[in-house]
Automatic annotation (TrEMBL):
This is UDP-glucose 4-epimerase. Its EC number is 5.1.3.2. Belongs to the NAD(P)-dependent epimerase/dehydratase family. GO terms for biological process: galactose metabolic process. It comes from Marinilabilia rubra. The gene is galE. It holds the Pfam family GDP_Man_Dehyd.
């Protein structure tokens, strides 16, 4: 019998790609998602790619009664991958209480049920935002965490602390936090990809929507950073590579070869690219026009960050494989398919 994995936020961008990789590896997947930033049609796309439709329950994990009822119904969950969270840096600055309530209460409800129903394993969707603006680059897992630049980033740091403390006193509960850098791109089938509700908060969907004519121009936030071209630098990782890291982490937990009750890993490429480099690469690889305008810096954004991935490469046996160019090409293929652009 295949092992059952709960994926919260599983119809979202990273979640849906991870569900595909899990199902391709033979896992049985059930999704919880409130569809606040995704669509139910994602289930059709997952089924088309993998030949199997995941289980699905629609509710928000801050609802304690519904979360309890889920675990009463699904008795065979062996591990959880927890994506479900609000994730817009700028919005979190404007709506801090909404972010703290949603992101922290949902996690605590899950952990309570892990203890109650003896679900031993969780992989958590964390973020490189926990490092703030590092004093030294690239960041390793031993790089000190800094006070977050945004409430969103702070919810990730607090969530990590909650998991660490909870797993320390609850024998048999093991958690792995994956600290993502910047996920971009889409599945090579172009059947799933990043499709935010409303105005995109992330760079690449804003680029693709501008190229598709949905947006008048791309806004680049700041050109006075201490970087070669003045725009911010990030470590951009292909979403499929990122999804595969979750499968590796799940196997590590299920095979009981993790070294501690709480572990964390940087998941990036090890390369930093500026916003302007990314824009120019997109234009070049896809042969499209892309009107853009430089505007003021955005609240909560840091100047530059990229990963040292040595620990994840060696300890997990995982490595990012896809190039920036092929990743940006996949993002445009997905946008064209969604908008019926030939």
């Amino acid at each position: 019998m295949s092992k059952q994995i709960l994926v919260t936020g599983g119809t979202g961008y990273i979640g849906s790609h991870t569900v595909v990789e899990l199902q391709n590896e033979g896992f049985e997947v059930v999704i919880i998602d409130d569809l606040s930033n995704s669509g139910i049609e994602v289930l059709d796309a997952i089924e088309k790619i993998t030949g199997k439709r995941p289980g699905f329950e629609q509710f928000n994990l801050t609802d304690r009664e519904k979360t309890d009822a889920f675990f009463e119904k699904y008795k065979n969950v062996e591990a959880i991958i927890h994506f479900a969270a609000y994730k817009a840096v700028g919005e979190s600055v404007q709506k801090p209480l909404e972010y703290y309530r949603n992101n922290l209460v949902s996690l605590m409800n899950l952990l309570e049920n892990m203890k109650k129903h003896q679900v031993p394993n969780m992989v958590f969707s964390s973020s490189c935002t926990v490092y703030g603006q590092p004093d030294k680059l690239p960041v390793t897992e031993s790089t000190p965490r800094k006070p977050a630049e945004s409430p969103y980033g702070n919810t990730k740091a607090i969530s990590e602390d909650i998991m660490r403390d909870f797993s320390a006193v609850n024998e048999g509960v093991n958690c792995i936090a994956l600290r993502y850098f910047n996920p971009i791109g889409a599945h090579p089938s172009a059947l799933i990809g990043e499709l935010p509700v409303g105005v995109p908060n992330n760079l690449v969907p804003f680029i693709t929507q501008t190229a598709a004519g949905l947006r008048d121009e791309l806004k680049i936030f700041g050109e006075d950073y201490d970087t070669e071209d003045g725009t911010a630098i990030r470590d951009y990782i292909n979403v499929v590579d990122l999804a595969k890291a979750h499968v590796v982490a799940i196997n590590r937990l299920l095979e009981d070869n993790n070294k501690a009750s709480y572990e964390f890993f940087n998941v990036g490429t090890g390369n930093g690219y500026s916003v302007m480099q990314l824009v120019k690469s997109f234009i070049k690889v896809n042969g499209v026009d892309l009107p853009y305008q430089i505007v003021d810096r955005r609240a909560g954004d840091i100047e530059k960050i990229w990963a040292d991935t040595t620990y994840a490469n060696e300890e997990l046996g995982w490595k990012a494989e896809k190039t920036l160019d092929e990743t940006l090409k996949s993002a445009w293929e997905w946008e064209k398919k969604v908008r019926n652009i030939k």
